[in-house]
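Task card 7
Instruction: Convert sequence to structure tokens.
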Amino acid sequence: MPAKPVVVLSLLGPTLDAGFGRDRWTRWRPNVALCQYEDLVVSRLELLYDPQFTRLARVVAEDVEQVSPETDVREHLLPIADPWDFEEVYGALHDFARGYAFAPEREEYLVHITTGTHVAQICLFLLTESRRWPGRLLQTNPPKGRGAEPAGTYSVIDLDLSRYDRLASRFREEATEGQSLLKAGIATRNAAFNVLIAELEHVAAATRAPLLLLGPTGAGKTQLARRIHALKKTRQKLEGRLVEVNCATLAGDQAKSALFGHTRGAFTGATEGRAGLLRAAHGGLLFLDEIGALGLDEQAMLLHAVEDKAFYPVGADKPVTSDFQLIAGTNEDLFAASARGSFRPDLLARLNLWTFELPGLRDRIEDLPPNLDFELEQAGVALGARVAMSREARERYLAFAASGEALWSGNFRDLNASVLRMATMARGGRIDAAGVEREVERLRRTWAALGGAASTATRAPGGGQDVLSALLGQAADDLDRFDRVQLEDVVNVCVAARSLSDAGRILFAASRAKKASINDADRLRKYLARFGLTFPQVQALRG
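Output:
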């Protein structure tokens, strides 16, 4: 089957194609050169030009006819008042395409992107990539060095990226490296967590908007914030340091001073000024863990600092500036806190743009083996010696860790402490089955206390009134006995549990064992909502 005739669509280059005298033949002119390649036979050249360059277009057409008689040059007027106006250039080229009788089944089209302004070249790329100009891109280059072909060189670029496997693999490798960094190199097997990390990697690289990390205590929010900072520095998305703050350790004027700084003499004892942690985070990342512990005044000041990149230190008459990215972490239901009036809804709206909920360890049971290996490595670093585990010990520990007995109330923090204890007590750097049994018994005793508390909590604080009456008031009397008994047990478990996830694991242990429960925390949250309750409301019964 004979090859299709090649048609080149090209803009006249008023600078590169210029020349009227005999010396023009000593210069490289792209629209003339593209018709001189021995292995590229141009059947037709569609030459687009502004009316003010009509004479130059005629000369170029005559010269093409001279070097390549087989090339049919067709001239097209393309009036453009401002060649640097994107809207005007794109519109003119788009209109030309609409009026041109493309026949891709009979002809092969090349779009020449060497001539024209940068704006025009971008527009040609966009029109070709969108297939409004159905062809491939043609780039020509002047000759380099002695003995080079006077016509120079050319390359044809197919915008079908699926054909560029190496290029596509580079993008994939970069994303994979970023995700691996966020996961600390741990080969995570949990599908939902892998999706979360992939989304977080993309968002962290693309924006400096605030991020909100949700999850129970010990789920890894602080560690993840550190890895986000490392990822952004690696990709040159920020230059500054990471500043970590546990808001639960701040209170009153101390919180304002620590976060926003103060001037000299702002309050009794302020003999020197203080820059504050927000200014220390300038150009970098500020991680506020347990953000729900901040007071309303501090929340308002923080919102102002995030939105305006400016704030007033305590005692200051003039604002100071700081440009940082905020990551907030919490295990609290901020929506419930907002409904109670303890968390500002405007700050919550700002934080909730990008929210990522980290699952607890019990929700990632399949990730126990790789995380055990990771913790063994970390223990070795901490102890200054390699730590290993016998096969029997490893199997015994993982069996217990994945069983219904293991609450993992402190999540990965509990796992870290558990492995570190075993590694410290190991003889010769090897954890044996006996060491695992001792650790298992220790964990059982620790978690039995939590389970016992759940079974003994039957009355509201102060005695006399039952927990349902304390929560629901007179509405408790309207409950059927069946619902009352069930709800009372759920509430008692919630009161004793350390987190929503812990309570969910206890209440839905049977369905979890059968792999019929996907998200225990969400399931419990919805159950409480049936009665107009939230987990923080229930936990408030602790007193």
